[in-house]
């Protein structure tokens, strides 16, 4: 390399110089960029091209014979599909080719083949007999592949095959060859594979066969010269013990485990210890006290002098040991074992930790990581240790240890004890007050991972805290938890300030338990306003919804009317009538929660009208969300008590149908109307009456329809004389089939109307020899047939419109409770324009 020029050494950081340096760097990047591979040559393209007319089987055979490795791998990956599609031809033509290429195949193709063979077995593409005949030998052939990953993949496939193979096939194809494969003359890999196969075969044969043919091989492998083989066989003794029963386990397996527990190899001793712990339930009390307990004692005493990995395993299995050996320890042994556990809980904390990590040797860092794992396992086993010492002795025996675990400098340890906190609380029962301070400590933990682990069972923990302890009187619930509310609020603020919004959402959801824990005044002054703030300012929708639902629960359990009214007013004014459309959307979310949590009458009293008022919202998304909510809103009404609210709701729906310009909102409204009509038709047995009406209409002479004048509004309002009352009444009764509810209990009033307005409520339409009556108050009929009315009969746009018109509809806000009825509103508008 050439030395840099003198000018470069000056390091000029002016703007021009910086741009010059950047250009130089870009040039260097271009020079060092790898050269793009050249395009495929025509010969290569020809070699990779396959005739499209070939069938799947023929293409697979061709690619396995003449294709490249990647093409062969693709065929083998597709083998399960070929077996499903054409098993006979696949076995006859494709599988022989697979057998040919596998011995020389690469690692990727071998792994793919192992997975495909296992998939074919799991999908039951062929019978077990056919599978064993066609695939088993291929699997056995590649068990000892030179690549350990490939060998393990084929072994996993074989172990799954052993589960379903018949006993005779297992004996001839697997067990008999295993006798030679397990000999010392074979490779270490072959003997390791034999250990795992023996562990699987034990459950497939009877006790006599196991004792005569399998156990001699097991003993031989337990005494193998290689520690890897001894350790592997030792870990299979648990499966073997389950297959041979208690007697053979005590006479054969236990002596081998005792010998292996004294092995010179630490991994062998560790395997023996873990197997003994897992088999504690198999042995009787004498074996546990006379044989296993001394082994455990010796193992614990030597563990600090051995490798730290043994300490990790020992600390992880302490819970099982306490449970399995419970009642066997003498008082002295009990105390020694407890002291051993306490020592593990503080392992590594005695060392000075103030130095810089960059200055610590790598082996020391690795040792500290192992110590952290030991303390983490101790935290995991803490509930079992409470049972071991008896919860009554917790304060004297284990409280100091629990304090250390909750204040451990490492997050994984505190995270684990936070997960176990609920179990500890349940075990302590009336003594749960002893760990109040530790609850506050974990709520205030600087790590959100710890907080997230704790709040999974926060409602249950707080309930135990409030009902347990020395005082269970409602008024004194918080006397022993003075710092709970500040800790809860600080935890929420810390979660809100982080990027972990799921933790924040979960915490807000768990706060819904607070009405059962603290008073409504404390909730009102310390939590309610915070929920409002989150709903209006937070940018994460799930968090806003969680705050909204929790606020509704707070409101549900608040019995002070002035506080209730203030919260309701804030919801309506700041959310429902807020300037931001986002706040109005959250108001609709809140309405949905109120419908779920509160009574129907509560929603109708306070939120029904503010909710449907949003049909006039200028933002289409708000109107759309309201349309989705309308069925739930309508379900809160109780007829006839809420009939006036139903009329206002229907008026809003009609207004949307007539004036809505957004196609998505309109589509939702129309769909809701169709569902409403379908429900009305399903719930009203009118099929026979409808049929009778149609039959009568078909028999009505065409002259009748010609004799009935059509009321067409005009300037003078007297263009057509009215008919007799009898004809009007008969036509009105027949129109009832279109809307049975619109004219209910109104016939008397309609008959007394003057002739000038007698046709205002309906418009007769004649044609094709029969007369039909279109009710202007029937929403569902109008929604479907508005476009089918002849233009000569459509309302004039210059007139005051009814609920069907395209002009200014009747505004429910400008009418009284009575004038909001669609029928009477129509009559009034007709009268006002003679």
From TrEMBL:
Residues 676-729, 748-768, 786-834 are annotated as: Disordered. SUPFAM superfamilies: ARM repeat. Keywords: Coiled coil, Cytoplasm, Phosphoprotein, Repeat. Its main location: cytoplasm. One of its GO terms (cellular component) is protein serine/threonine phosphatase complex. Gene3D superfamilies: Leucine-rich Repeat Variant. Serine/threonine-protein phosphatase 4 (PP4) occurs in different assemblies of the catalytic and one or more regulatory subunits. Component of the PP4 complex PPP4C-PPP4R4. This is Serine/threonine-protein phosphatase 4 regulatory subunit 4. It comes from Callorhinus ursinus. The gene is PPP4R4.
